[in-house]
Write a structure and sequence with these properties.
This protein is of the alpha/beta class. It is built from three helices and eight strands, in the order βαβββαβαβββ. It has a four-stranded mixed sheet with strand order 1-4-3-2, covered by helices on one side. It has a four-stranded mixed sheet with strand order 5-8-7-6, with helices on one face.
Length: 125
C-alpha cells in the first residue's frame, strides 16, 4: 500500500478590508510585504507569517475577526505600530503581561479587524 503525502505547506486567513487601498497601505506601513495583488486579493507576508487581504467587507464579520502575530520583541513592534496607528487613526493598546505567558498589545486595522501582537514570556517554574 502506498502512503499518501499529507504534508501541509501553509495556512492563511482571508482578512476583510473595507477600503482595500487604505488597508494595503496600512499593512505595508506595518512592515508586511505585498507580494501580489489581483482579483480583489492581496497576498502579504512578513518572514514566514502571511495572510490574504480581501476586498470584501461585512461589518459584523470584521468586528469579530481576530488575528494573532507572534513576534520576538513586542516592545519594538509596539513602538513601530504606535506610529502606524497614529498615521491611520486606528486604536492601539499598551503591552500587557497576560496570564497565558505572553506579553501582547492590541491593534485595530482600518476595517476594525483586531490584531493581538505579542511575544512569549518565560513560563513560571
Amino acid at each position: 500500500m502506498q502512503t499518501a503525502n499529507l504534508s501541509v505547506v501553509e495556512v492563511k486567513a482571508f482578512v476583510p478590508a473595507k477600503d482595500f487601498e487604505r488597508s494595503m497601505a496600512f499593512y505595508q506601513a506595518l512592515g508586511f510585504t505585498r507580494a501580489s495583488v489581483g482579483g480583489g486579493i492581496a497576498y502579504f507576508h512578513h518572514g514566514n507569517a502571511s495572510f490574504l487581504l480581501q476586498d470584501f467587507y461585512v461589518r459584523e464579520h470584521a468586528d469579530n475577526f481576530l488575528m494573532h502575530l507572534l513576534v520576538e520583541d513586542v516592545e519594538a513592534w509596539h513602538a513601530m505600530a504606535r506610529v502606524v496607528a497614529q498615521q491611520f487613526e486606528v486604536r492601539i493598546g499598551e503591552p500587557e503581561d497576560q496570564p497565558w505567558a505572553m506579553r501582547d498589545f492590541i491593534l485595530f486595522d482600518p476595517s476594525g479587524v483586531l490584531w493581538r501582537i505579542g511575544q512569549n514570556l518565560p513560563k513560571a517554574g
